[in-house]
Each structure stands twice: as C-alpha cells, then as structure tokens.
Amino acid sequence: MEIKLKGDKDIESIPSLKDKALRINLNENIYGTFSEIGAGQETVRQFFRAGGGSGTIAKAMSAYDKDFSDAIYGIEKDKRYVTEDRLRKMLDHEINLIEQRITRDKHPHKMFFSYANTVATIDFAKKYKGHGWIGIKYQVDAEQEYNEIVLHIRFKETDARLQQETLGKLGTNLIYGAFYKYNEPRKLLRYLYDHLDKDQLEIDTINFSGPVFANVDNRLMSLQLVKNGMTDAVMFAPDGNNVLPARVLYKRNILTLRGSFRPVTKVNMDMYKKSLDMFLKENKVDEEKTQVVFEITLSNLRAEGEIDEQDFMDRAKLLCSLGQTVLISNFQEYYKLVEYFSQYSKARMGLAMGVNNLIDIFDEKYYRQLSGGILEAFGKLFFKDLRVYLYPMENEDGTITTSDNLKVHPRMKELYKFFKYNGKVVDIADYDPATLNIFSRKVLSMINKGEDGWQNMLPEGVSKLIMEKSLFGCETEEVTNRK
Asked: Contact 94/118 with Cβ under 8 angstroms?
C-alpha cells in the first residue's frame, strides 16, 4: 500500500522514526558515516537514540568552523558552503575514507554509505528562512558501484530549533528510503515527508544516480515533486538534468514563455526570438545576465485529464533539443509566477504571450480567491520592472488582433488602458506572418491521424526527432512495418 503525505492517510500507518533508525542499525551490513554542517547533528542523533548503532555508525562529525571545513573538503570557487558542489565533496571524501580504513577482506558484505548535509537555518532577522543540500552516497550490494540521492530543501518554519528537528526527520527518512525503497523511487520520494508536513519544508530539486537508478529519469522525478505538492516549481536544463531554480535565476533578467508546447512549433520559436530581441534592447538588460525560461503549468499538463507522463517527456525532449531551460510549475495565474521569480531576482522581467493569454489575465474569475481581487493580482504582477510582449493573433476574417484592438471585459477596459499606455504591454511588431495560422493542437491532430504536412509547421530538426523517437504517438512507416 502506498504511504501518502501527512494529511492523506493516518500517521499511525507510517513507521516511526525510531523504528526506521533501528531497522538500519540492526542491519549488520549497513555501515557508514554522518557529516552534518550548519544545523547540528540532528540526523545521526536519531540513530544514536534508537540504539544498536555501534555496528552502523562509523563516524559522526560536524565540521562547523569554516576554516576547519575548508581544511577537510577544500575551498569552493565561489567561497560558499551551502552548495551542491560542497555536498558532493563531502560525500566523496567520506566514502573514500571508509574505503581506505575498512578492508573488504575483513568485511566482505558491508554496504558502505555516507550521509551528508550542508545547511543554513533561519537568520536572526528572520529575513531568510534558510535552505540546504542533503544527500546520501551508498551501496545496496558490497560488490556494486555507489548510488546517490541528492536533494535541495527550503525551510518554511521560522524557528531555527524547529528547522533542525525537521532536518533530522528528513535525513532519517532519506537514509531509510535509500536502503529499503530504492526499487520504488516514487514511493521513496513520498516517504521523505513521513512525520513531516508540507508547511515545514519544500523539496525543490532531487537527482538520483547510480546502478539501481539506471532507469530513473530525473525529469519525471521533478514532475512528481510538483504533483505531490512538495514544491511549486521545478526546473531542468537543456541537458535534461534537474537544476536548482535559485542557481539559474539568481539576479538574472528573466524572459518567460508559457505554453503547452505540444509540440513546440514555429510560432512558439518566432515568439521566443522576437520577444528576446526586444527584451535585450530594454534598459538595464545585459544579455550575459539574461535567462529565458519555457514554462509549462501543471494545469496545462492536466488539460486532457490525468497527467500523461509520456506526453510530458515528449515535450521536455523537444524543448531540451532546442537548447531551452524548462520550468514545470503549479502557477495557473501569472502573478504567482512573477512572485516566484521575484524570490531570486529583482532585475527586469518579461512575459511573452499570445493575445488569448493576455485576455485571460484581465478576466476577474481568476482572482476571486484574493481579498483585493484583480487589483491585488495586478499590484503583484506589475509593481516589478515587468513588461508583456504581445504576439498578435490572426482572426478567421484575416484581420490581425494586437494590443491596440483586443477586447477585454467592459469593466476591465480602463484598467487595460492604464497598463498599455504606461508601456507595460508592447506588441511584437516584427513577427513572421506565415506562422500565425500554426497551432500546436492542429499539429498534434495531424500527427495522430497520420496526415502529412505537419513537419513544415515545426522548427528545424524537431519533426525529425518526433519521427525518430515516435513522440506524441507518431508512427513512421518503419515503425508501422515492424509491428
């Protein structure tokens, strides 16, 4: 039976932290080290208190002093300590020490592990709630290569002691899951919140690697984080690996395109290129400090009902093949997306969108949950240095809709005029007219029906990839013959 997050199922059905730690301790073949920096030694404390840890805990340490930590693990190029690079150095260093100090002749069946975390808890001013990197490098077979699970968390609690306790619970869940649920990574992911609540911490990045995770796609694991409510957004790079949004977005100018990208078409890429050209010409926008993000919302992924993970992967592969950074978010409203970006950057932001998207922004029904209604949402959306780049729409009668003639609800007309004439909405004028009648849903329908001609509606190389990989249900003559 799948154990669910707290609130989804009775907490009594979940093994206690003591039981989890004790099961690890009583396994005579599990043996390793705990290295914790920045929030005490809360994880190893669970294993000491459970009892029977003498055969499990090789060493517990906290290289808390920066000079001492540098002497052990080396100095990071950016002089920072709460980073993924630092965590991985800790894991590698401690595993190497175990291998050097414990001979396989004497312990042929020992499964070595190194658990580590490097964390910053809430500051005295309570301005920054804190975050951290946590990971485990371990074996499930003494003769097998090492596996790794590395994740990044953000604390939500406003008390350092509570954050330390939360970290200890999470670390125990991670170690237990690594050894006893590695063959069910989706469940392992959910088990991380045993005895924890989503109001206590957010997991916004996770990566699995090693022989037991050879068939795990980390992009799908990212999607699980958003589906399970563990975070509001996840990001992956053009190489397909999960990346920390804070690292990618920190102090950057951000241009975002939201869409279904099912599949990505020429009109999407024309919107991207033309809006980027305009964005880079804005005051204070440096190309080297600019990040473009292609965003797909969870509501869009659910447009056809339950999320089709294969369909999601097809979209991801195409966007990555075009060298794009992809964000999967739970932000249906644009103002929430802008708020999210504002956590990491105070620089300029741009939203590239079509006419229908802009009309939706001025629809009051999306803001009924806000006490200040649409005015509150627009205050959050436009008080930053943000601009909307509007891509035109061709109507059935051949006319073109732009920011000058689009129609919003009569009650919203004056509000719309205010933002337009204050330069917050600008038209993408140098668009390609030949792309205006291209729609993803039309392309997808043609692919599913086996019709020809859709290839010309897609960017160079995309149609070839769709056919080679049989994406979106595409079946080439070769695939059909094999059947």
From this structure: no
